[in-house]
Each structure stands twice: as C-alpha cells, then as structure tokens.
Design goal:
Length: 217
C-alpha cells in the first residue's frame, strides 16, 4: 500500500520539527520542505530572496508572508510531491496557513495532518544553544544527538556549525515571534480537525514512535 501524506509540523523553534521531519521523510519516502533551509540556502547564495530575508532572520523575526508564499508556491510546483510532503517550519502565521490552503486548492490537493510537537519553553534554550547544524540539512546536539566524530556530519562529513540565530538574545526574540504569530495555528488546525498533538519532551525515538502512532503510519 502506498501511503500518501501531506503534512505540516508545528511547534516552537527548537522543538524538534527538523529532526522528526528527517525521520518521517525516510519513513514515508516523501520530500521534507523546510522553509528555514531554503531561506538559509538563498542567503548563502546571495539571491534576491536571500538578500531580502537575511535581516529578518538575523534579528529572529519572521520573514514577510509574501516572500514565503512565493517560495512555497514555487516548491510545490515541482514534480516530486506526488506521494505527499512534510512541511517543517511552515506555515508560521495565519496568513501563511490561508495562503497554503489557496495554493493547495489550485493544485487540487489538501493538507491531511498538522502534527504539533509540544515542548515546554524552559527546554528550548538548551535545545537551541546546543544545536549544531550541517549545510546538508542534518542537525545534531552537543548532548542529546552527538555526531560520531565531534564537529563532523555523519551523513556527509561536512563541518558542523552553530547558526547565528541560535545565540541566546536572538533565541528570545524567536520565541516571542512564535508566541505572537505561530501559536494561533494550533487552534486553526484543531478547528480543521487535522491536529495531532505529540509530547515532544521525550527522547527523539519516542517522539518519532508517537508521531507514527498518531498518524497511523
Ligand atoms: P526545530 O526544527 O523545531 O527548530 P530541531 O529538530 O532542529 O528543531 O531540534 C533542535 C535541537 O534539539 C537540535 O540540536 C536537535 O538535535 C535537538 N533535539 C531534537 N529533538 C530532541 C529530543 N526529542 N530530545 C532532545 N533533543 C532534541
Ligand atoms: P527553527 O528550526 O529554529 O524553527 P527555521 O530554520 O525554521 O528555525 O527558521 C529560521 C528563520 O527563518 C526564522 O527565524 C525566520 O526568520 C525564517 N523563517 C523560516 N521559515 C519561515 C516562515 N515560514 N515564515 C517566516 N519566516 C520563516
Ligand atoms: Zn551533512
């Protein structure tokens, strides 16, 4: 049986969306679409999108909705999404959720599930300040998910780095943005009957098992 799954992952910055999206992508064999990764790549390459987005990202603010909408529309026009997709870090505002609905309508598809990974705010700073990232998209943690060789990516042997926005003052701003702009999406998807809430304050494997159970996959 081919499982088709069009889903989004919701939760605080550092809540484990990217980590779980990577596991789910393997499990479901569908693409992971991380707006954060796409934006960081655009910044690195100095594209017009990257130039516009950079100042917002450095300040821990959300990038304006119209830029995000264009980026998502373009990504969903590619032909690898037939079996579905996993959004990680999108939508982040009510306007983005409405925008996604419009794009999906145009494509004749709809979102199946919104998985909300719930982690208490007091765990978030430790998660983010200990995060180490690789340009390939892989994510590690200095305590809870150590690479086999310190500072080196298991997947591609690339050099791990700490994101500029994973510093304490920017983290605080990102959490504020989350509370003001993204948290209302929990109710939005609950009302749509699509919300699956998962306790994210457990080991990575346990969270993954709960998500699979919650989605029946
Ligand atoms: P998000 O994409 O939501 O910002 P990440 O998946 O990048 O979150 O995770 C943030 C940090 O926390 C990373 O360093 C990751 O290795 C670590 N992490 C993810 N899930 C867990 C977990 N269940 N327990 C402990 N640490 C975790
Ligand atoms: P995290 O993994 O910590 O949740 P992301 O990698 O998803 O962070 O996002 C990093 C930054 O990129 C955000 O702080 C924001 O500036 C920008 N960004 C990513 N996705 C979006 C989005 N859907 N809407 C607006 N800004 C976004
Ligand atoms: Zn890598």
């Amino acid at each position: 049986m081919v499982i088709q799954m069009r889903m989004i992952l919701l939760g605080k910055p550092g809540g484990g969306k990217g980590t779980q999206a990577t596991l789910l992508k393997e499990h479901l064999d569908v693409p992971q679409i991380s707006t954060g990764d796409i934006l960081r790549e655009a910044v690195k390459n100095g594209t017009p999108l990257g130039k516009e987005a950079k100042n917002y990202m450095d300040a821990g603010k959300l990038v304006p909705d119209d830029l995000i909408r264009g980026l998502v529309e373009e990504r969903l026009s590619q032909d690898d999404i037939g079996k579905g997709f996993i959004f990680d870090g999108f939508p982040r505002t009510l306007a983005q959720a409405e925008g996604l609905k419009k794009i999906a309508d145009k494509l004749g598809i709809s979102i199946d599930k919104a998985v909300y990974i719930d982690v208490p705010t007091d765990k978030i700073v430790k998660r983010l300040s200990g995060r180490r990232s690789c340009a390939c998209g892989a994510v590690y943690h200095i305590e809870s998910k150590r690479p086999k060789i310190e500072g080196v990516c298991d997947a591609c042997s690339g050099k791990l780095y700490q994101r500029d926005d994973d510093k304490e003052d920017v983290i605080k701003q990102r959490i504020e943005q989350y509370e003001a702009q993204t948290m209302p999406l929990i109710d939005y998807y609950r009302k749509e009957g699509k919300l699956v809430t998962i306790d994210g304050d457990q080991d990575i494997d346990e969270v993954f098992n709960d998500i699979k159970r919650g989605l029946g996959i």
